[in-house]
Amino acid sequence: MKAPVPRPGVYELYWKFAAERQKAFESRLAGHPWPWSQDRILQEFKFCNVFRAADRVSQYMIRDVAYRDDDSTPADRMFQIVAFRTFSNIRTWDEVTRFLGRSPRIDHLQSDRFEEALNAAKDLYGGLYTGAFILCATNAYGRSFKHLNHVELFRDMFVRSGLAENILAAKSLREVYDLLHTFPLMGDFMSYQTAIDLNYSAHINFSEDDFTQPGPGAIRGIKKVFLDLGGLTPQEVIMWMVDNQEREFERLGFEFNGLWGRRLHAIDAQGLFCETDKYCREAVPELASARSRIKARFESSPTPMQLFFPPKWGINHRLPQGEVLGQPRRSVLEPMF
Prior knowledge:
Shape: globular
Strand content: under 5%
């Protein structure tokens, strides 16, 4: 059986980071004061959660978009999830829903109300997007602003092309990805991330391990963690990590309880390669890399949130009750976990 060749001293950091970062998340949930880790690098710099669905923006998407308690049709829900992930901005979405008086529907695309809502949000805040993802060229539909080209993309998808119905009829996560990937502005990684978000919903339900698509950060991480891929593709390396996680955590002596018992899936293992790439910039600076430092030092968000995961995962009954992860804002920068 093919297997990648680990880089000694760096391969282990992938599993160490996963274990320590998850412990920090659990420590903060338990109400312990900062620092939530004894690891200097984790104390100083921002890193995403081990489990993608636990990050603040994904939590909002799951709770307030995918499972919002309203009269949205399944097709409307597909549109909402795709649109939210495009902006990945909670403030933008809150303003859009406030302007419309509800979650946006496909008929808001047809009537121009969704475009009006975005324009109002842009006038109010100056920007609509976060830097979470690198978005493809912005003028594919000939509009003068990036957000207006995305409005045209959504019209192309959900008004003219019947994308929602095609997604709802899909037979695999890869098919959902392929459907998204056929459209302008939908690159490899954005299509994959959006497919995962759609799969969080109540309307489709595929294994997250059916398919993966590494982003640029994950590719950098894979090159650092392994000396040789042993004939495997980056996608196969990610799946290898998923398949061998229990064995490797035990072999290396790292305690890892998962997300209330949920193991790592391909989307999480992919993200861990990206975070390991960042971690190595401090832990192993001698490794050659196009990026030599971690840029993000974050102030902890004072806004608490109610944790909520897709009910089909069967873990919501294990979660802490009430709002968590909020704390008073300090005058100095500190990492956000």
